[in-house]
Every structure is written in structure tokens, then in C-alpha cells.
Amino acid sequence: MNIIEPQIFIESPLDGAEILKLIERAGRTAYKSEDKITPESAEKFTTMLINRGHFSVIEHYSVSVRVICDRGVTHEIVRHRLASYTQESTRYCNYTKGKFGNELTVIKPIFWDLKNPNDVEKYEIWKETILKIEYAYNRLIELGSTPQQARSILPNSLKTEIVMTMNLREWRHFFELRTATSAHPQMREIAIPILEKFKSKIPIIFDDIKPSS
Q: Is 172 a catalytic residue?
């Protein structure tokens, strides 16, 4: 068994200035005010759109992100309808093969404090359960089960990779829901770093979204 932390990777090239210019060109179509475009006008125009709630204009740009997390988190991610997804398939991936290290890779739970004896016991129960599942999965494959048959016993903790593509408006919706304190801790564990990356690369669009502590 291999236990890892979740990871995120921005797959799309992000040039914040060019993104704002594209949004401005699209948005000014409504007003036929293209003649007012200057080298410095995109930020002011985009700020106006955000402040007025004209989010349809920011749908003209999409971003793809690769997320490595547990499958339980991806069950929630794919609830976002206005998006495209490609995910590691447990039907076709045979985790007893060499490229998977002949073992299950799982995501370390974030919600147990291993300095707390009670949480340590919870973590050990989780770990022992994963080891039993790994043994059972390997044994099913040895007995001739296909990966799509053996996957029925795989846990939510199983590591998966998903590439998710959303336009900027849907990303705003994603962050508003998934960085809130009411969101699942493991969802926040990936959503907040993605939001921080977006804020650092794309001016204005996400500045007003502040994750709850």
C-alpha cells in the first residue's frame, strides 16, 4: 500500500493579461465599444463586469486542471455539470501490474490529527482496512477476475487522477461551493490551493472569493 498526499496541476497555460484582454474584447461586443480598448483598459472593464454580476462574459475562457485525490472527492467534483472530465478508470487500470507498483495507492486522510491518541486509533483502523482491501483485490485478480470485476471492493480512499475543464464562470461557482467550511475537508484540501493558483495567475476574476477559515 502506498499512501500519498493530494496534488493539483494547472494543465492550461495561464496568461492573466491575455485572458482579461479576451474577456474585454468579448464583453465590449455587447456595447459596441471596441474603440475604447486601450493597453490598460482590460482590468477596469473586467472589474466592472464582475461588480455588476455579468458573469456570462467570463464563460469565454476555460481552464483545465489535473487533480490527484481520492475517489470520494471526485464523486462530488463531477456533480458540477458545466464541465468536461477525464478520469483514471478502475475498469481498465489493473493495480496488480508493475506500472502501479503492484499495490493500491491511497490518499492520506486530512481530518485525523495523529498527535491525538483517539485519532491515531481511527487512522490505524483505516490503514488496516485498506491493507485488507488491497490483499482481497490482488487475490481476486489472481483468481481470474478482471479489473472491472475486482474494482467493486475498492475504497473511496483510492487515489485517482481527474482532468477537469471549466469556463471561468463555472470555476467561480466551484470555488464558492467547495472552499466553504461546509464543504468536505478533503474537497477543501484541493479546492483552496486551486483557487490560490488561479488568483496568482488571473487578476480580478476570483479576488472576491475568500475561503472560510
A: no
Distance (Å, whole) CA 6 – CA 34: 44
Amino acid at 52: R
- The span from the CA of 72 to the CA of 75, in Å, is 5
Catalytic residue among 71, 169, 172, 178: 178
CA dist 118 and 115 (Å) reads 9
Bridge partners (DSSP) listed for residue 158 = 106
Q: Are 211 and 192 in contact (CB under 8 A)?
A: yes
Rounded to an integer, what is the distance from CA 154 to the centroid of its chain?
Answer: 21
Give the model confidence (pLDDT) of 29-56 as tens digits: 999 999 999 999 999 999 999 999 999 9
CB under 8 Å to 101, separation ≥6 — which residues?
Answer: 2
Rounded to whole angstroms, the Cα distance separating 193 from 161 reads: 16
Pairing of strands 159-167, 83-87: antiparallel
Q: How far is it, in rounded angstroms, from Cα 68 to Cα 37? A: 40
The residue with cell 491525538 is: 116
Digit-coded pLDDT (tens) for 52-102: 999 999 999 999 999 999 999 999 999 999 999 999 999 999 999 999 999
